[in-house]
What we know:
Bound molecules: adenosine-5'-diphosphate
CATH topology of the largest domain: Rossmann fold
Strand content: 15-25%
Distance between the termini: 67 Å
Number of strands: 27
Shape: globular
Largest sheet: 9 strands, mixed
CATH class of the largest domain: Alpha Beta
Amino acid sequence: MLGSMMEVPLNVISIIRHAASNHPQAEIVSREPSNQLHCYTYASAYRRICQLGRALARLNLQQGDRIATLAWNNYRHFELYYATAGMGLVCHTINPRLHAADVSWIANHSQDRVLCFDRAFLPLVMELLSELQSVEHFIVLDDSATDWPPARVDLQAYERLLAAESDGTLDWPTLDENSPCGLCYTSGTTGKPKGVTYSHRSTVLHAYASALPDSFRLSARETVMPIVPMFHVNAWGLPYSLPLVGARIVFPGEYLDGQSLYTLCEQQQVTLAAGVPTVWLGILEHVKKSGHGFSSLERALIGGSAASESMLHTLEELHGVEVLHAWGMTEISPTGAVNQPTPASRQQPVETLAFKKKQGRAIPGILFRLEDEAGEEQPWDGKSAGHLLVRGPWVVDTYAGGIAGARPDGWFDTGDIATIDPHGFMQIVDRSKDLIKSGGEWISSVTLEDAATAHPDVLEAGVIGIPHPKWVERPLLVCVTRDGSNLDAQALKAFLSERLAKWWVPDAIELVERLPHGATGKLLKTELRKQFAHYILPTAAANELEQP
Ligand code: ADP
């Protein structure tokens, strides 16, 4: 026997259709390359999405074909998300900050048939032209297509394609809710990029779950600035969850420095902004130097890497901005956990900031499991660390090209080591490959980085394990100090010694001008390891082989 409810497949286009009918006047503001602001409503966005759907229909594509984008967070990119999905195509967002060879590798791997790009990426696309094997149509996200070499006749201007189509709504095709709508490659901090193909069903369910009060708490009363790029895990699903609730959206375009983001946030009276810690660092540095504060920002959504205690302190205690610390990954669409308190967790005898460092509780739909090396389940006692496994309707099963994702028993191994407390709050200890194995025990690089950035003169810190003749590995701390600071390694070591167990104190500290970052703004440990590949720790060279 089956339930007797309507069978309406979950479909991405229904989200924007809902926004256009129920929040027709809610705005989408975008910063254009010219630095001017473009502003229109959900109703106008939906009209243009219908036009774009018609234009795409003329390109002779098959359902499931991939439409690649190389674009910043802006209204045209937003329209592409919906029109492609609505037509049964797959919006394949490519990270333009990747090396050109990686961009063409990814586009060829996914057999993209159309490439849509912001004019700013024209030089990159020109460089890729001879490498791209499957792209038949090039669309520049602009009014005209004049800069193209004459030999390539198939460059079209986005606005001209739209202008050629009639106005009025479109009868979108009926699609299986399990059919694909989006594709994202992992950022490759852990190896060759792997493609994760999202379905209409996974995308819609993820949007519902992430909008909930104990997730991102989204509503029509918010003005939200997704700083996290739309080419990185769909800007954490915000282009779907914001129209779902009718929130006002502010897209920052290509202006991602601290000053530009802060100015836009103030001008547009943003109430919630979302970005990785590196981006917040830029904003907070600007705010510190300029002596300004936030007049509208109520909440900061931080994820992608751990939010440090000093960042939590600055936002929450200095500026009164509530931090929502969230955890996820490309394979989880991406949201898996958000740190929102419960009545019980509020009564825990822990300092608020220490508690905020936890990545939070699984959002409804996501299940957690902790396992030790032998696959034995670990207790949720807040102390036992284990491999974090997840499952749920928006977790990858198989990567593009049939590469296995989830294990045969249905769990996906995140590659993270975590603890979970009795209230369900998960805390990332480290990525399993970043843990420093010191004499049979391990040291969390995340904890050391956090301790280092607690020093007021330390701007950013990265910790890696360096081979050691006795302890296998010992930590090296690499730091960037703030402008004008004269902090030296010895003073920093003394500072850390007061805060860490003796054997966790790094064996060496190097002060550098800058740390390497990956294409999504995260600290790139693979690159840091390369830079210090031949590093010899003083404790090893001097044969100080006693327990540090
Ligand atoms: P990649 O593996 O290519 O970097 P992602 O960008 O999807 O891909 O990164 C996912 C990883 O980022 C997680 O497995 C986790 O290690 C890390 N991460 C995400 N959010 C947080 C967070 N709030 N705190 C600590 N680590 C995080």
